[in-house]
């Protein structure tokens, strides 16, 4: 298991799967939950590593999707 610091600054769904140890469906459900800000680039979904890290630590100062 790689440390989150070794991932790129902008993550995609496969990175989220690896970091959290979850399947593809669960990763997309988490993204769709609106718990944190995501960006759609064409058909790809991107999330900042910083935003995911703050969400993992329970930091309430993360940008949520509106």
Quick recap of the structure?
The chain has three helices and three strands; from the N terminus they run βααββα.
Description:
The structure is a single chain. The protein has one domain (4-54): Arc Repressor Mutant, subunit A (Orthogonal Bundle), CATH 1.10.10. The model has no long low-confidence stretch (mean pLDDT 89). The protein starts with 9 loop residues before the first strand and ends in a 9-residue tail after the last helix. The radius of gyration is 11 Å and the shape is globular. The chain has helices spanning 13-20, 24-32, 49-57; strands spanning 10-11, 39-41, 44-48. With 66 residues, it is α+β, with helices and mostly antiparallel strands. The chain contains three helices and three strands; from the N terminus they run βααββα. It has a three-stranded antiparallel β-sheet with strand order 1-3-2.
The tally of beta strands, per DSSP, is 3
Total discrete domains: 1
Q: Strand count, sense and closure of the main sheet?
A: 3 strands, antiparallel
Q: Could you tell me the strand content as a percent range?
A: 15-25%
Which blocks of ≥5 consecutive residues have pLDDT under 50? none
User: In angstroms, what separates the terminal alpha carbons?
Assistant: 32 Å
Can you list the strand order of the major beta sheet?
1-3-2
Question: What would you call the shape?
Answer: globular
């Amino acid at each position: 298991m790689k440390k989150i610091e070794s991932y790129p600054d902008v993550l995609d769904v496969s990175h989220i799967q690896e970091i959290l140890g979850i399947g593809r469906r669960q990763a997309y459900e988490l993204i769709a939950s609106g718990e944190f800000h995501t960006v759609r680039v064409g058909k790809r979904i991107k999330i900042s590593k910083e935003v995911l890290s703050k969400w993992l630590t329970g930091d309430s100062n993360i940008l949520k999707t509106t």
